[in-house]
Design a protein that fits this description.
With 258 residues, this protein is α+β, with helices and mostly antiparallel strands. The chain has 10 helices and 8 strands. Among the domains are: 81 residues, Arc Repressor Mutant, subunit A, CATH 1.10.10.1200; 87 residues, MAGE homology domain, winged helix WH2 motif (Arc Repressor Mutant, subunit A), CATH 1.10.10.1210.
Length: 258
């Protein structure tokens, strides 16, 4: 007996209306579940990004506040005060901080001595980037740095005192100046602590046998060319007149290009 076309049609394994509705419902639930999971993942990522940006902003605020006294900023202090002691994230977060400092503020965070940092102005102009709240200190510092460079990039303490004495800034028995203040304190303590100057010990057995050189902050905020140009402007001469110093300028600029 042959089946009718209707029987043949009904005998095929096709889903009926109720089955199709059930499948649609399951598919809809799966889609909603997938959407919720994707939303949760995106929300979690957004929260992590927001948390990282808050950390970056907090570190930048801390750096600008800590830089006011021009003392190097301790890595351990950043970890303690901003990162709640979590040193594992320091390296990655500080790279992001440096990018923001450069792109937004025009500053660079320079690492010195392995575990300390200084802020350096990246914006190029014709003026040295030495920065002080007290302009009196800035003038004295600039004179000292220029003299050290012109003397051969380093000089003994007594040579520096002779220079300042010839300028009438100090006398044999008086390091106080009405405009600059305590010269000896500024040069031997403040400028050294701020890394504008460095004391280089020449004799390990004699801590008093040392010379002053430019410190890491001075090297980042000032150039040999600007120091030599300052002298050349005073004497109204081309900088090439000082052959030894000019050669030092060229060497510095060549090293910077490499």
């Amino acid at each position: 007996m042959r089946e009718s076309s209707e029987d043949m049609f009904l005998s095929q394994d096709y889903p009926g209306p109720s089955s199709q509705a059930s499948q649609a419902s399951v598919s809809s639930r799966r889609t909603r579940s997938s959407t919720i999971k994707d939303s949760q993942i995106m929300s979690s990522q957004d929260m992590e990004t927001q948390k990282e940006m808050q950390l970056i902003s907090s570190i930048i605020r801390y750096l600008f506040m800590a830089d006011r006294n021009k003392l190097p900023i301790q890595k351990s202090h950043i970890i303690k005060h901003i990162l709640d002691g979590n040193s594992k994230v320091f390296r990655s977060i500080i790279e992001s901080v440096n990018i923001q400092l450069s792109q937004v503020f025009g500053y660079s965070l320079v690492e010195i001595e392995g575990n300390k940092y200084i802020l350096v102005n990246e914006i190029e102009n014709d003026l040295p980037h030495l920065t002080f709240n007290d302009n009196h200190k800035l003038v004295l510092l600039y004179l000292v740095l220029v003299h050290i460079f012109m003397y051969g990039e380093s000089c003994k303490e007594e040579i520096l005192w002779d220079f300042l004495q010839n300028l009438g800034i100090i006398t044999d028995d008086n390091f106080q100046h009405e405009y600059f203040g305590d010269i000896k304190q500024l040069v031997t303590v403040d400028f050294v602590n701020q890394r504008y100057l460095e004391k280089v010990i020449k004799n390990k057995n004699d801590p008093m046998d040392f010379e002053f050189t430019w410190g890491s902050r001075a090297k980042n905020e000032l150039t040999y060319r600007s120091a030599l140009q300052f002298v050349a402007d005073i004497y109204d001469c081309p900088i090439k007149k000082w052959k030894l110093q000019y050669k030092t300028v060229q060497d510095e600029e060549e090293n910077a290009r490499e």
